[in-house]
Task: structure prediction
Amino acid sequence: MNNLNFTHRNTILISLLMAITLNSSATERATLLEKYSDQGVSQFSAERGQQLWEQPNDGTAPFTTRSCTTCHSQDVKQRGQHIRTKKAINPMALSVNPASLSSTKKVEKWFTRNCKWTLGRVCTPQEKGDIITYLQSQ
Result:
């Protein structure tokens, strides 16, 4: 009986922690979108985010054409692989990976790094919000 209660309590505790984590992740994403809105963006679009995600861009050798799909794969519900390091990348779709985009600091870090490498420039607040909106819709 004690084992059952212990197991039941653990299940409840784990469920509560997951709910808190998911709620916290959603709050982080909402905070980011609000921040981008405060920078002059009126509306975000999943369609524009998908277009930007899949858009081929000129790069330098040996990766002369690159897009977000180059490392993250065409299907954001699948794992990707970094083109240079071959390191595995978790799925970006929130339906598969709810922890994706859960840290404002990490999201800003990766937008800075990946936009410069993929697009050759910093992403605008509109583009960042559109990509987050796209990944939330998947």
User: Anything to note?
Assistant: The first strand starts at residue 57 and ends at 58. The chain is about 60% helix and 5% strand. The chain has a mean pLDDT of 87.
